[in-house]
């Protein structure tokens, strides 16, 4: 089995067991590098944003151990262990060991396996790496149990890493399960950063519209030109998409242009695409054959109050049964009492609490 296939199998398993880690790991760059050697043996390395690996190292561990190792690398990024400002003038090797102890305790408590060559000591539980470093430094302790190398994170990659972490969290938070408190605190600490709503939109749309068996070995090259990074499909069956736009006057031209730009990319994934315009009542429902022409075909009426019920009613009456409904609105309006039998994604122009469905806020 090729190294890329081994890593893909680990990612697929992690997506099943814990979507947050699986999605985050799938978004980080994994780089095969035969120069990654520690103590004369092939190993892993990370700066928190990129994961490097010697191709031979993947044959040295079991699948469950590789899950723990890749989680180990991901957690260094979440806990910001590779920031230059945090490393400071400390001894890099001793700092690495202190950080390893922190993440390995988290991994063990989450129930994952680690290789025998892992720095681990429960006496340091609930300590920061800075505290552990000082204790180890005073004792002049030397740990030989290590399986990876840490590198300083490049300044230009700090914000990118934060966005990857928050994007993975937003995508998976409805099925995220119980994460350790320390991990939740670390994620909340990152919250002020801007979340890339476009990437989350593409991911959710891809998940809803993909019908057949997913192949995580390689991204679907067909959609890369449109900035859509989805797993490829063994055989691809396109679904149906409905886009509803609130024309009550709460959507600005700039927001509409942003929204249309992203929907255009997603439109290449579907066979059937319907556009519905609605404020307090439905004005237009149009089946779009060529997305590029849809703005010329649809007359945007409206300007009154907002009621979401008519859109769901007409979908039901016409038996459209979409694979996904995307609704652009400010979120203020009357919602149906019951969730429909198809997924709904609300694209909101302000942060409003919707009663059900997924939501994304246009920045």
**Gap between N and C termini:** 43 Å
Strand order, main sheet: write it out. 11-10-9-12-13-14
Mean pLDDT: 81
Give the overall shape: elongated
Structural class: alpha/beta
Q: Write the element-wise H/E pattern from the N-terminal end onward.
A: HHEEEEEHHHHEHHHEEEHEEHHEEE
Number of strands: 14
Explain what the structure shows.
- The protein has 363 residues and is of the alpha/beta class.
- It has twelve helices and 14 strands.
- It has helices at residues 3-17, 19-27, 63-78, 84-87, 92-109, 129-139, 158-172, 181-189, 197-209, 253-267, 294-297, 309-317, and strands at residues 29-32, 37-38, 41-42, 44-46, 50-53, 148-150, 214-219, 231-233, 239-246, 270-278, 282-287, 324-329, 344-348, 358-361.
- It has a six-stranded mixed sheet. A four-stranded mixed sheet has the order 1-5-4-6, with helices on one face.
- A hairpin with a 3-residue loop joins strand 4 and strand 5 (50-53).
- Helix 3 crosses helix 5 (92-109).
- The longest helix has 18 residues, at 92-109.
- It starts with a helix and ends with a strand.
Question: Features of this protein?
Answer:
single chain; 14 strands; 4-stranded mixed sheet; 6-stranded mixed sheet; 38% helix; 18% strand; 363 residues
């Amino acid at each position: 089995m090729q190294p890329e296939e081994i890593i893909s199998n680990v990612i697929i398993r992690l997506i099943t067991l814990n979507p947050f880690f699986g999605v985050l790991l799938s978004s980080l760059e994994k780089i095969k590098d035969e120069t990654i050697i520690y103590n004369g043996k092939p190993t892993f390395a990370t700066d928190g944003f990129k994961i490097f690996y010697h191709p031979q190292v993947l044959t040295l561990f079991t699948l469950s151990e590789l899950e723990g190792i890749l989680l180990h690398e991901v957690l260094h990024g979440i806990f910001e262990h590779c920031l230059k400002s945090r490393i400071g003038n400390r001894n890099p090797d001793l700092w690495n060991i202190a950080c390893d102890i922190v993440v390995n305790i988290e991994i063990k408590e989450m129930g994952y396996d680690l290789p025998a060559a892992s720095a681990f000591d429960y006496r340091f539980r609930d300590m920061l790496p800075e505290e552990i470093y000082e204790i180890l430094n005073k004792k002049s302790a030397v740990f030989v149990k290590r399986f990876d190398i840490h590198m300083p994170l490049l300044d230009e990659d700090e914000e990118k890493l934060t966005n990857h972490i928050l994007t993975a969290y937003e995508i998976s938070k409805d099925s995220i399960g119980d994460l350790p408190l320390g991990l939740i605190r670390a994620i909340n600490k990152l919250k002020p950063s801007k979340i890339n709503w476009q990437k989350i939109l593409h991911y959710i749309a891809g998940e809803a519209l993909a019908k057949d068996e997913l192949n995580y070995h390689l991204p679907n090259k067909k959609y890369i030109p449109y900035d859509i990074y989805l797993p490829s499909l063994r055989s691809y069956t396109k679904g149906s998409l409905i886009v509803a736009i609130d024309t009550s006057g709460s959507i600005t031209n700039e927001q509409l242009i942003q929204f249309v730009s992203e929907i255009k990319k997603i439109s290449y994934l579907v066979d059937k695409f319907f556009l519905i315009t609605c404020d307090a009542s439905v004005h237009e429902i149009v089946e779009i054959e060529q997305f590029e022409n849809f703005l010329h075909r649809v007359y945007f009426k409206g300007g009154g109050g907002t009621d979401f019920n008519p859109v769901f009613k007409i979908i039901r009456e016409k038996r459209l049964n979409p694979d996904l409904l995307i609704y652009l609105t400010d979120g203020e309006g009357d919602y149906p009492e019951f969730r429909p039998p198809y997924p709904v994604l609300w694209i909101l122009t302000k942060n409003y609490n919707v009663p059900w469905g997924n939501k994304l806020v246009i920045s």
